[in-house]
Amino acid sequence: MSGLELQDFAVARGPCDVLRDISLSVRGGEFVGLLGPNGAGKTTLMRGALGLMAHRGQSSLSALAPAQRARTAAWLPQAREIAWPVTVDTLIALGRLPHMGSGQRPGPADQAAIDSAIDRMGLQAFRSRIATQLSGGEQARVLITRALAQATPLLMVDEPAAGLDPAHQIGLMETLAAEARDGRTVIASMHDLGLAARFCTRLVVLWRGGIAADGPPEQVLTPDLLARVFHIRAYYAQTDHGPICQPLGVVP
Ligand SMILES: Nc1ncnc2c1ncn2[C@@H]1O[C@H](COP(=O)(O)OP(=O)(O)OP(=O)(O)O)[C@@H](O)[C@H]1O
């Protein structure tokens, strides 16, 4: 299974449903940008779908046994927490645990996945560094690399570009887009509409507990949706560099 199927999916937080009646089908090869204002339920959708939070309705992922789920989906949480002062290499190798037997050390296939992820994220020079001594953006890149090393058919990342400098944001989006082109499913919650428009193949906008729009960027990021959901007006154009979406101002 490389995609994600949600059917009549709903999640309550406290006394209220944050999400309700969500039906969503995402296939291998898609790079989905999950958009929505603060509090729209992006994290809730991903955590619920993964089975990290109680939900109603069906999620193809949460229905899996935990060991199989860990081999199916890698997850980058919004909070970039590194608890132990281990080396970057050691931390990234933890991404291979779902593929290894108990007490087993990484084999050649695991090492190849680790090396490939480190190359793709440009972390070669950091391999021996203590992860907790890195900057916030560097730690974020290490945790993304751990998720890539997990080499799962589905990658779910919560605001992956947050805290990265412009070059690393673009590099990360190119890496995620390449993962999708290789047939994997990538779902990324995002606030940067410019990056989402340029790199995602599909945008899903959450608003008021449901899906306000779902489709290719040019069909989703309309002036009406941007004003109604995000309370902004933006410049949007198709260019030789791909679509450009630049927020310009706030509308009431
Ligand atoms: N423990 C909780 N108890 C009650 N409500 C909660 C709890 N955690 C989150 N919420 C509420 O659930 C809603 C959805 O939160 P969620 O984190 O999924 O939003 P989000 O779209 O990811 O937002 P952001 O863009 O700010 O990260 C918010 O209104 C939030 O206040």
From TrEMBL:
Residue span(s) of domain ABC transporter: 4-233
Does ATP-binding appear among the keywords?
Answer: yes
Tell me the keywords, alphabetical order.
Answer: ATP-binding, Nucleotide-binding
This protein's superkingdom?
A: Bacteria
PROSITE patterns named in the record: ABC_TRANSPORTER_2 (PS50893)
Which Gene3D superfamilies does the protein's record reference? P-loop containing nucleotide triphosphate hydrolases (3.40.50.300)
Write out the coiled-coil annotation as residue ranges. none
KW Cell cycle (keyword) present: no
A GO molecular function term, named singly, is: ATP hydrolysis activity
Record InterPro entries: AAA+_ATPase, ABC_transporter-like_ATP-bd, P-loop_NTPase
Any idea what this protein is called? Answer: ABC transporter ATP-binding protein
Organism, scientific name: Rhabdonatronobacter sediminivivens
